[in-house]
Amino acid sequence: MSTARFFQSRPRHRLWISLCVTTLGLAIGLLTIGVGQSMAAPDQQGALHRIFITDVRDTQFVVSWTTDTPSNGQVEWGTTTALGSITSDGVVSTTTHYVPITGLIPGMPYYFQVRSGSLLDNNHGSYYTVTAGPTLGIPGSGGTVYGYVYQPGGTIPVSSTVVYLQLQDADSLGSAGNSQLVTARTDATGGWFYSNLNDIRTANAGAYFSFSDGTDRLSLFAQGGSNGTAGAVVSVPLTYPAPLANLVLNGTPNAVTMSNFTAASQPLTASGPLILMAVLGAAGLVSWQVRRRSTRV
Q1: Fewest beta carbons within 10 Å, which of 182, 216, 237, 285?
Q2: Distance (Å, rounded) from C-alpha 262 to C-alpha 267?
Q3: pTM higher than 0.90 for the full model?
Q4: Buried b (16+ CB within 10 A) or exposed e, 56-94
Q5: pLDDT exceeding 70 applies to what percent of the chain?
Q6: 297 inside domain
């Protein structure tokens, strides 16, 4: 049977082939969009990575991200898309950027965009948004934890590394699931500390996360930018102040894997590859159906 006759006599074949082409087009589109959280323009995408919003309280939140090369960093923010306020990273030249935004109004939504050098990430003009949490009572005292971050080999300390912490329920007592993400930053000695685990809130920032010393878990992830990443899960300490496991970075620049945290804890996960695999799988199935039907002609 000729090709022209095949298409004329088999409308369902035309439908299957049209679906195949559409599916492959969707796959190409997903690949073009990219998979990181940063939604900068294509010429900026390679240098500004993985914006995280953490430490959401009634009067503050923290924005952190990485860049390929050392640069400054600043967050432009406000209660409307006109923004109007600017807060800069205290470290002038680094690949790990960390900006606490303070002086917020409880319950108020805020908009922001991020700059590093000449790079701008404003979420494709939609801006990033976060709502300040409610004001809560005074948390329990104590709960100080600390540790150190090192380059591969475990001897050279790394400054300006951002350490993410998350409480995780393990005994089905107190708060369920996982807490919000909170952060600390290493100093020149590679050391960091978080002053009080009791002030960590639930994922929606509406209450303090209730946990059990000694039985619940504390997940740690160190983002060292050009020095790589490291992670660990430890038991919540029984006594404080408590030293935690040293974290040794893996040397893979700007890795974004946060395997110790649940996907729900991340503002935007790198799910593009999984979607692309599913789309390509569907395209393969469509192509198989076309071949199967054509053999019956």
Answers
A1: 285
A2: 11
A3: no
A4: bbbeebbbbbbbbebbebbbbbeeeeebeeebebeeeeb
A5: 69
A6: no
Last residue of a domain, one of 135, 163, 192: 135
The whole-number average pLDDT for the span 183-196 is 98
Q: Is 20 in a helix, a strand, or coil?
A: helix
pLDDT value of position 49: 85
CATH of the domain at 101: 2.60.40.10
Half-sphere exposure of residue 4: CA atoms within 13 angstroms, side-chain side: 0
Do 96 and 220 lie in a common domain?
A: no
- Where in the sequence is the domain holding 45, given as residue range(s)? 36-135
Residue ending a domain, among 135, 151, 178, is: 135
Comparison of pLDDT for 201 and 271, the residue scoring more: 201
* Band of pLDDT at residue 94, cut at 50, 70 and 90: very high
Q: From the CA atom positions of the chain, what is the Rg in Å?
A: 24
Nearest by Cα to 203 from 182, 223, 189: 182
Domain tally, the chain: 2
**Same domain, yes or no: 210 and 223:** yes
